[in-house]
Amino acid sequence: MEKNEAQTNNTSTLVYQVEDKPNLGTSILLGLQNILTAFSGIVAVPLVIAGLAKLNVVDTAYLVSASLLASGIASIIQTKGFGPKKFRVGVGLPTVMGTDFGFVPPANTIINTMGGGMAGYFGASILGAILEFILSFFVKPLMKIFTPVVTGTVITLMGMSMMPIAFDWIGGGSDNPNYGDARYILIAVIVFVVILLLNRYAKGIWNSAAVMIGIIVGYIISIPFGFVDFSQIGNAEWFQMPEIARFGIDFNPKFVVPFIAGYLVTVIETVGVMETLGEVTGKKLSRDEVVAGVRADSVSSFVCPFVGSGPAQTFGQNVGLIPLTKCASQHVAIVAGVLLILISLFPKVSTVVSIMPSCVLGGAGILMFGTVAISGIKTLSKVKFTNRNLLIMASSIGIGLGVTFRPEVVAKLPGILSSLFGSGISAGTIVALILSLILKDDPDAPEIE
């Protein structure tokens, strides 16, 4: 079947086309469904970042609220689109955006390994967004440099490098005097199993919301153990306007180094999401429209840190929701963005999320970070396992994980080298890129048995 025919068939199965505007009630219902599908992804990342930075409940709640606000703003930017054709920002198709887990490993490096704290994290996000905006003009040559063997290796490394943190959460938090308490492990295991079973056997929204359901189950089980302090909810405000640069912003260039790999991968992933979005909505996207989608990621990633959220990326799970719900309405996606902004203004809602014990997030973290690693392995499965490619993968993952587990080894390197190789992600990416460029690719080389 030709691509145009496939797009026509996709369009014919849709109940609501891109330009359709369902009535308000229907739009709110379908918008909430989009939010439900993305919610666990939207709130999980700020919870992870808060855990890395050891923030208190109030600041954690603010991060969650800020993430919801930023997601709403970014989703509207991407969905609506604005600006002249050559410099357009936003693809103009229904999307939901939020911070991706791929940015968590470099965030950990900046906050803890490099000592930049939250201010360094937000400063690096903004500087990286400028880099992504520049890269949006070089999508084609960038894809030639970031070959599948490089992209797959980097994504795999990102997921693997976060596993020690997930297990610290399972133990109750590295600074917890009762670290490793059997009750923490029990709760984490239950969360893990619930998510696993729902992802494997459930259908529809139960499958899409598996992470959120698993976290809710773990949250409820934690209550009788006395791990949830509900007094924090009573102390939270009912309504709060967003603050600009609440945690400060540090524009030290060295902090952006770990984010370079994340933004490079984001550009490539967003191109793929945009192409898929065009397929499921029945809209044939031009190269300029795809680039406009990448550009919206960068503009949103520039704006979001000022209100307290990390870099933004288009969520692939919501693209997958379109053929399931048969709704490709741009209007519905904008309504979802407005609802996210409204929800973010009520701190009591975010505080309910923020008082969740770390062991609950740890149970989900195994699968969340594992999924990132597996998505990289999936990319690598399409790569021919020649001697060259094997050397690139082994060297990059080996060096990347080595630096992740023993960052002190490279801490005394002179000048910018300590920044470039201070993060396992950046070290692994640099090695993969250099070897990819200097090791000649032989299409006829045999695969290693």
UniProtKB/TrEMBL annotation:
The chain crosses the membrane at residues 28-53, 60-77, 118-138, 145-170, 182-202, 209-228, 255-277, 332-349, 355-377, 389-405, 417-439. One of its GO terms (cellular component) is plasma membrane. It holds the Pfam family Xan_ur_permease. The keyword Transport applies. One of its GO terms (molecular function) is xanthine transmembrane transporter activity. Belongs to the nucleobase:cation symporter-2 (NCS2) (TC 2.A.40) family. NCBIfam families: ncs2, NCS2_1, pbuX. This is Purine permease. It comes from Blautia liquoris.
